[in-house]
Amino acid sequence: TLIHLGKGAHAISGVVGSLPGGHVTLLLFTLMSVVFMATTFDSTSYALASCATEKLEAHQEPARWHRLFWAFTLVILPLSLIYVGGLESLKLAVLISALPLVFVYIMMAVSLFLSLRDHK
């Protein structure tokens, strides 16, 4: 089957495409994914440009070229990882970069527990 071959996305699109109205559903899903990715890259590049701009007042916006630089950087990084080593290298990079967050989440959970305990 496609799932055993590691092609789960093909299996899902095949199943959804075979349902009544499946092609419309796939089209809407694709459109929603593009909109989600565009807004995610826009907000992330805005936040990165704001943090990287020196002496930026609260009411000011970062330069457009600075936001575009971060947007292209955010797009080029995963594309280059996919080009170099396929999806496996991208998965490995995500795993390595997410590993330190486990400790942050543990500290947040302990902090939440202590805060809730003291709130009684």
From TrEMBL:
It is a multi-pass membrane protein. This is BCCT family transporter. The chain crosses the membrane at residues 26-48, 68-86, 92-116. It holds the Pfam family BCCT. One of its GO terms (cellular component) is plasma membrane. Its main location: membrane. Keywords: Cell membrane, Membrane, Transmembrane, Transmembrane helix, Transport. GO terms for molecular function: transmembrane transporter activity. It comes from marine metagenome. It is found in: Cell membrane.
